[in-house]
Design goal:
Radius of gyration: 29 Å
Low-confidence stretches: none
Distance between the termini: 81 Å
Largest sheet: none
Helix content: over 70%
Oligomer: single chain
Strand content: under 5%
Order of helices and strands: HHHH
Number of helices: 4
Shape: rod-shaped
Length: 117
């Protein structure tokens, strides 16, 4: 996807400064559709494929609170899940390691007792 498929920054600015009361219902609907498509394009298009201007605009819209969109939210959820699984496995490994060390110490102590008899 190239910047030519994204909503021009001038259009975004013009839509933002024009009050909805001065727009027709058709114009408002068109803006809603093109904004949704542009937002989807922002979330799908990799940063490497964006112009500097488009990167800046996307960063500004994220800072404004538009969020990351579904793709960004899904990515965050997957990363959080992976972290949770990793932490759980580390804790289980540490518990098993500790249990094995405790068992080894007990076995050594018992062997020493037997040697002393």
């Amino acid at each position: 996807m190239s910047d030519s498929l994204r909503k021009p920054l001038g259009d975004k600015f013009k839509e933002g400064v024009t009050p909805d009361s001065q727009k027709s219902s058709l114009q408002q609907a068109k803006e809603g559709v093109t904004s949704t498509l542009d937002s989807a394009g922002k979330n799908i298009q990799p940063s490497e494929g964006k112009s500097t201007t488009q990167k800046a605009a996307d960063g500004a819209s994220d800072a404004k609170g538009e969020g990351k969109g579904l793709v960004g939210q899904a990515s965050d959820a997957i990363a959080d899940g992976a972290t949770y699984v990793s932490d759980t496995l580390k804790n289980a490994s540490n518990n098993l390691s500790g249990t094995a060390q405790d068992a080894s110490k007990k076995a050594d102590a018992e062997a020493k007792k037997q040697d002393l008899k």
